[in-house]
Amino acid sequence: MRHCGMRGRTQLLVGLVVGAMGTVSSPAGAQSAPILVGTWKGTAQAIHMGVNPYRAPATSAPVFSASPMEFTVTIVEQKDNRFSGKKTAGERTETLIGAISPNNQSGVMLDDDGQYLFTLRDQNTLDVCYNHLNTSGKVIACYTWKRSM
Q: pLDDT (tens digit, 9 = 90+) per residue, 58-68?
């Protein structure tokens, strides 16, 4: 077996590092965030307790909403992975801000009183889970938003 000197080891190490760098994508090759600007619609059925802006509580126990509620989300501005817009249901409108995660497949949004976690299923479909928790009430709902064409 041939002895590999210090110079040989250095060349081997440099070769391995350069080779590894070629397999890692650089920021220049990174995908840009998906464009979410537009109008999205979804129908949710929630479970809630206490007071919330959309339903009057009949009891202090958990309530499984019997009737679905339609929401319209309009994202009006996006800069890189950050965006803003509004969410409406019935007569109520809330400001919405959000960000897309670095993997470009999920993200988070906030409205006036709650948080949304979302997964981008495809360019026109978001799977969304909403929650809010405050001293007067709690709400949880998971549903799908479809981009209006």
A: 677 999 988 89
